[in-house]
Write the structure tokens for this entry.
Amino acid sequence: MLARHPWVYKSDVLNGPQTPGLYPVQSSKGVLALALYNPDSEITVRAFGFAAGEPLPVLLENLRKALWRRKAAIQANPQGGYRLVHAEGDLVPALVLDYYAGHGVLQVGSAALEPLTGALLEVIQAEIPLQSLLAKNDQKSRGLEGLALEVKPLYGQVPQTVYVQEGDIRYRVDLREGQKTGAFIDQRDNRMRLREFRGKTALDVFSYHGSFALHLAPNFERVIAVDSSAAALERATQNASSNKFSDIQTQEANAFEFLRAEEKRRAQYDLIVLDPPALAKNKRDLEKAYAAYKELNLRAMKLLPVGGILATASCSHHLSESLFYQMLYEAAADAHRTVHIIEKRTQGWDHPVLLNVPETYYLKFALLEVM
Ligand SMILES: C[S@@+](CC[C@H](N)C(=O)[O-])C[C@H]1O[C@@H](n2cnc3c(N)ncnc32)[C@H](O)[C@@H]1O
């Protein structure tokens, strides 16, 4: 904690109160921090301040500052999608708040924070007034905190879907049924970056509701969006037609099997996007996940002609940046391709990384060209 990492695990807590709440963290030398505390949670202490003081006003001030950081972007594009609060990355631990065209979706991941929801809402409404707010508290990790898994409106009329403007395209978000809080906003700027590429055929693998495909459609003759979720692909089709794109096809498939079959029939694409879910959910999974990432990238590299582009991501924090590029190097070597790194990118600016908290840096995104 002296190095300003905010977490203390249960096994390292000498003694503490019986009930969850906001407390000062004491060492033999005095107050070290102000923190969310839950004696039943594996991550027992989650600090949000590193000086003595009244905990609640400090936490609410951190929330206010997080909202201020996004205000200009929202004023410039009120119909857009942004992360308003990125938990530890904004020094508001265990709180995620996403903004979709005026509507908010909130996720609370700590028993110490849950009773403060009303106070948090007052600050949110004062800084960035929302038309509605949905608590999408259905993450499994809430069970470990002793919290109920539930999805419920906190105020306003929560619509089933909203349309979000992202550059030149609009996409439909299903607030209640969609994955995460409804969309993967962390890839927003990477999706818009792909607008700069041109070609005949493009493949968006792990496409969700057609997110990258929608940005590729204007500059490619044919785009195929592949995902294992039928519900996401149904929205991809709706998104394609509401943007008046007739050249996006969807395919419901396991991406690993799909790429294997494409390699077998010697298919070629001018651009391929790979944006898998976190394949390494914990450290124990890492070796298996590394092999899976490598398989995906190796197969994709084989499907690209000289000059072909691979836009490839990993959102596993456990796969570090150096391991990610090592994995890509090994994939290129085994595919016998010479590959040039056009650009190394990461999560959007509204998902801030705290240097002291390596866990906040999770998204690696490489733009590669086969030479
Ligand atoms: C990180 S999200 C993709 C986000 C998307 N690219 C975007 O920008 O919105 C991962 C996606 O992979 C899909 N998925 C998970 N396992 C899969 C598999 N084995 N084959 C194909 N799709 C899979 C999920 O349904 C989800 O849509």
The pocket of S-adenosylmethionine is lined by residues 179, 184, 187, 191, 206-208, 211-212, 227-229, 232, 254-255, 275-277, 315 (CB under 6 Å).
